[in-house]
Amino acid sequence: MTRSPNPTFDVDSDGIGWITFDDADRSMNVLTEGVMLRLGEALDEARGAAREARARAVVVRSGKPSSFIAGADLDAIGSLEDPLVAEKQIRLGQSIYTDLASLPVPTVAAVRGPCVGGGVELVLACDHRVLSDATSTAMSLPEVQLGILPAWGGTTRLPRLVGLQAALDLLLTGKRADAAKAKRIGLATEVVPTDLFDDQVRAFALRLARAPWRSKPPKRGLLTQFLDDTPPGRRIVLFMARRRVMATTGGHYPAPLRILDILSKHMGGAVEESLVAEAKAAAELVVSPVCKNLVHVFHMREAARKGTGVPAGSGATARPVDFVGVLGAGVMGGGIGQLAASRGIRVYMKDIEHHAISGGLSHARSLFDGEVRRRRMSKLAAERHMELIAGGLEYHGLSASDVVVEAIVERMDVKKSVLSETEAHVDESCILATNTSSLSVGEMATALERPARFCGMHFFNPVHRMPLVEVIRGPATSDDTVATIYGLALTVGKVPVVVGDGPGFLVNRILGPYLNEAGFLLGDGFSIESIDGAAKGFGMPMGPLRLIDEVGIDVSGHAGASLHEALGDRLAPAPPLLDLGRTGRLGRKGGSGFYRYDGGKEKEVDRSVIALLPSVRAADAPRADPKEDARLIRRRLILSMINEAARVLDDGIVPSARDVDLAMIMGTGFPPFRGGLLRFADTLHPRGLLDRMTRLQRDLGDRFEPAPLLVRLAAADRTFYEAYPAPHDRS
Ligand SMILES: NC(=O)c1ccc[n+]([C@@H]2O[C@H](COP(=O)([O-])OP(=O)(O)OC[C@H]3O[C@@H](n4cnc5c(N)ncnc54)[C@H](O)[C@@H]3O)[C@@H](O)[C@H]2O)c1
């Protein structure tokens, strides 16, 4: 049987031409090279039909009931290496969309479900856009998140359609516009009920065929008109946008800056010139390391999203989770309860204190209120979600649980006895998980009758914001248990990484030497500003000293001490951090640490803390060369992490370099534009790494002793990614 081309072109008896995308091999339509070439042919057919007056309007639609187009082919983007080849390919795509824009009959895009990237650029080349009101219907241009810009006309056509400010809001962030927003800003001509979608699209096309009209931009106030439409207004908008981009990205991401360049130069000018600039800029960006790294991060996330947490062919099944029990309604338990309820899961929070339960409930309530305020959730939905959460002091409230997550005090004896009591009150098939951040999952399991149904589920604080969940497999944990907790983490919108049961698991273990090194740097007389500045200059979201404040000086002191105990002298706490622990300062939650805080908000560096740390040498003495200092600080901080990551791999905590990288990006905000800690390490080459580490060991001591794996990789001249590929990358 011959397969129909994709997209197809047909003309119906009413004189409407239909270009229909429906990829038989994929669940979503993707604009591969083949599809684009076929679109070119379909447009030739449409042009012919229009000339012969057989077609009086053309509709572009998807044959999939719940999605439009998922964008361009990412594999093709990731493999482009030559900017000239890239530019030629982009220009070809642009010319196909220009053909669509210049069809001699009116055109309308019928969008139901997600419409992404190249899909949005396609509909921008149509005269009208009719959107369904389904909640899944949304337009987004996520190119900037991949280090490129919309170059099939998106950067050029979007601001011309919706105005400069509304366009920048989408172009610079990649965020989605739902149907209501699309209508408000003039991106959608009409929004129709999803149940009547096909009929309404047909009726719209028939009206258009009878009497073509152009869509009118929505009414805008005088100020918006000034800012969007006049050269001085646009200059102000672009200047402010550039400032915002620099503040949020530190200039590490070139794509948004290139978008602003193009709009500065071409916004009021000819479309064709703007298209040429778009193609050139995108071609340079697409071959850059930043783009390659961001595409790598995207693939890591997708692999985690599609994964099960257990080896392929293990036969394990994830059980559906409709009811989650939470032990402890404190900071973490309250957050976990709210998160589960926000995804429609029933929750029972058990604590030993009434006031903790009411605290947990009001924490959940305030998070839902925040969602309502930010218009991410309706009031009604927030009420419904709140109704899913119950709490009490009794164990029997947990009896219907599919999973119970324990988040009580960090003490092995208490956790053991509470888990054991819980086991007696739940069904045999119920899975128990601990949110411990430092205790052994294997040791905890010894208190249980059913250790196979127990593992770690390590959320990070604050639960609603931090994307990572470490799923910790203990020695007795079964595949079904891992698969269920992995699936639950995905259901609640997190990125799970399965890790082995070792001190600090993965993220906290690698952060340990990094935070400690910041203490040693203080001791060597580097200032708070220079230490945190060097880390931020590298791209970390905050410096290590600011992070210690954030985590809490008491909590991080405790974590440092337990890593020291478990891993030995290379983790011996830096004397300034021990001094810090004695000051009684708590960090952000207490209002002071390395920084001063007011109502939880960071105010400024608090230099007075240095005087409280006897082991710190003259910190304020001016140093010879700030640039050289920054390089040295950065080297000490980042190599500390790389060296520990090498030990983590050697200890089998995770099987692949990719796991380390995904966890560090999602758990610490390690800069995505660098592709991950070990991908960055691989750019330094194994011998270069060993060399640097050996010099640090010589100058600063044995905490920098190269990890045995580094020595082996250098001898074999192999990178981390070569030696520890992800399972599906192994040949
Ligand atoms: N706070 C963090 O940053 C963070 C991050 C990751 C993991 N964790 C881990 O999560 C767990 C909880 O930490 P937290 O910060 O939410 O603590 P928390 O002190 O805010 O809350 C603990 C809650 O457990 C309750 N509790 C104590 N004993 C109990 C018992 N026998 N039965 C039921 N409830 C009991 C307490 O009343 C309290 O409400 C700890 O294991 C901690 O290591 C904390």
Write a brief caption for the model.
The chain is an alpha/beta fold and 731 residues long. Helix content is 51%, strand content 12%. It starts with 7 loop residues before the first strand and ends in an 8-residue tail after the last helix.
Which molecules other than protein and nucleic acid are bound?
A: nicotinamide-adenine-dinucleotide
Strand arrangement within the widest β-sheet reads: 12-11-10-13-14-15-16-17
Give the overall silhouette. Answer: globular
The helix content, as a percent range, equals: 40-55%
What characterizes the major β-sheet? Answer: 8 strands, mixed
Report what the structure shows.
- The protein has 731 residues and is an alpha/beta fold.
- The radius of gyration is 28 Å and the shape is globular.
- The strands form four sheets. It has an eight-stranded mixed beta sheet with strand order 12-11-10-13-14-15-16-17, with helices on both faces.
- The longest helix is centred in the last third of the chain and has 25 residues, at 626-650.
- α3 (83-101) runs antiparallel to α12 (271-286), α4 (118-124) crosses α5 and α10 (231-249) runs antiparallel to α11.
- 51% of the residues lie in helices and 12% in strands.
- It has 31 helices and 19 strands.
- It starts with 7 loop residues before the first strand and ends in an 8-residue tail after the last helix.
- Nicotinamide-adenine-dinucleotide (NAD) is lined by residues 327-333, 350-353, 356, 407-410, 414, 418, 435-437, 460-461.
